[in-house]
Amino acid sequence: MEWNEESIGRIRALWAEGLSTAEIGRRMGVSKNAIVGKAHRLNLPARPSPIRRDRAAAPPRPPAVRRVVGPTLPPLSEPAATVAPPPVLTAPRPVAPSPQAANRPPVMRTVTTLSLIHI
Fold it and tell me: What digits encode the pLDDT tens for the residues 20-53?
């Protein structure tokens, strides 16, 4: 948008009426931020924040959490915790072959064991 004398006069008039920057922008067909920037460059009087904050009625803030200073893990010189051995897995019980299985070649199966160690 080109800022000519007419548009600058209109911003000044709408600003003096107390309209919000968003409303001025809507009426002039520009963004709110364009109005904010132009008002700043024109040194128009500052507006109070539209966010109402009553400091007296606000609940007190909790104290800040104290940060831990120094190492948070035990030193490496201490003995490591003992870990229980993984459980012993037993093989599945054999199943009697069916008559249809007699004509098929044997199937190779691989059993993989996985143990998780929790430290």
Answer: 999 999 999 999 999 999 999 999 998 877 677 7
Give CA–CA dist 25/7, Å, rounded.
Answer: 11
Question: Tokens standing for 7?
Answer: 């548009």
**pTM beyond cutoff 0.90:** no
Return d(Cα 20, Cα 10) in angstroms, integer.
14
Which two three-digit tokens encode residue 60?
Answer: 């007190």
User: CA-CA distances (angstroms) from residue 85 to 68, 103, 116?
Assistant: 35, 42, 10
CB proximity list for 117: less than 8 A, separation 6 or greater: 83
Contact indicator for 18, 29 with CB cutoff of 8 Å:
no
Nearest-angstrom CA–CA distance, 72 and 75: 9
